[in-house]
């Protein structure tokens, strides 16, 4: 097995601009990621290519130039602002004679540093193992296949096969434990639905100020810092609104462009809080020049986790960093709150946010009779899971009559997902 060098704190950064704009990453964001990981950038190499080089990703000449710089500066690690294939990673490590990380591995490393709860650590380990499973190289030769003859019979598998088997066993174990955590979260959500407690989830690009806003509103002491992925473990707090009563506010992990799919899969239970929320507060750093692109990237992740249908209130944070930034509340054509401009750091405009939450959540509950045919068993199960069924009766023809009561936002979302055919089941 090729000797892999341990990551250190002195880093050389590599960024490639491709002809295809959709494949490009942000160099400023890479520097912030490296700083968040605890490394110090020594030098930055940029180059242009139409497509990645098969062996080195960046081309032979540029690779030799970086290798010379690594030796001159005694760098510990070279970090690419892109996803490398396992073969490219190994080829570069042989050339540079130091550890090589790609963007995905860097983000996984930051997540590993930030994880505090047992669930968070399991999720990070699952994502790391899934990523590692594609990067196992041939093992050392002391475990050989079985051979004939006395004293020559080996264990029957190579070290590489042993590593893969152990990885599969560990991944299976973690998936099972996370499934139990997901069931516990689901029980908590059902209890909140039975008690009719609305849930508001903070979503947004990483470092947009979600945790600072969360602390401001709930008077909590969640860790907040000017760095990417300062929050990893979800935190739930209860607040009181005048016309609504108890409301659960959930602080979740921040999103980032090209978020590794292994992370999205591993954090399924955590992101469920975002998917099942009654309202999303999309926190946006309005002082960031990449604001429009960041908002687009967040929407892409929300679509990937099936959370794009949840009603959303835009929260433009950090107005104190703008020259003429003033807190204000914007409304849509129907007069409902659409966006709030505030500063979570100073607290300016937070009263407008609470007023908007009070207005959006203080909606009337809808109540009506449904007559579901026998074939609509999936819809019946979903209504029970939502805690919306107040009474149920069975008819001789196999149909089900039920009295349903649920928040108007949930009903509108249900109609949007199930289609207009759902309206035909309503008994006049």
Automatic annotation (TrEMBL):
Where is it located? Cytoplasm
Self-association state and partner proteins as the record states = Monomer. Associates with the 50S ribosomal subunit.
What is the protein name given in its UniProt record? GTPase HflX
Database matches in InterPro entries = EFG_III/V, G_HFLX_dom, GTP-bd, GTP-bd_M, GTPase_HflX, GTPase_HflX_N, GTPase_HflX_N_sf, HflX_C
Which organism's genome codes for this protein?
Pseudaeromonas paramecii
Q: Which residues form the Hflx-type G domain?
A: 198-365
What this protein is reported to do is described as: GTPase that associates with the 50S ribosomal subunit and may have a role during protein synthesis or ribosome biogenesis.
Return the PANTHER family for the record. GTP-BINDING PROTEIN 6-RELATED, GTP-BINDING PROTEIN HFLX
Q: Which NCBIfam families match?
A: GTP_HflX, PRK11058.1
The record, for SUPFAM superfamilies, names: EF-G C-terminal domain-like, P-loop containing nucleoside triphosphate hydrolases
Q: Which family does it belong to?
A: Belongs to the TRAFAC class OBG-HflX-like GTPase superfamily. HflX GTPase family.
UniProt cross-references to HAMAP family, sorted A to Z: GTPase_HflX (MF_00900)
Quote the Gene3D superfamilies the UniProt record gives: 6.10.250.2860, GTPase HflX, N-terminal domain (3.40.50.11060), P-loop containing nucleotide triphosphate hydrolases (3.40.50.300)
Q: Principal localization? A: cytoplasm
- CDD domains attached to this UniProt entry: HflX (cd01878)
UniProt keyword annotations, A-Z: Cytoplasm, GTP-binding, Magnesium, Metal-binding, Nucleotide-binding
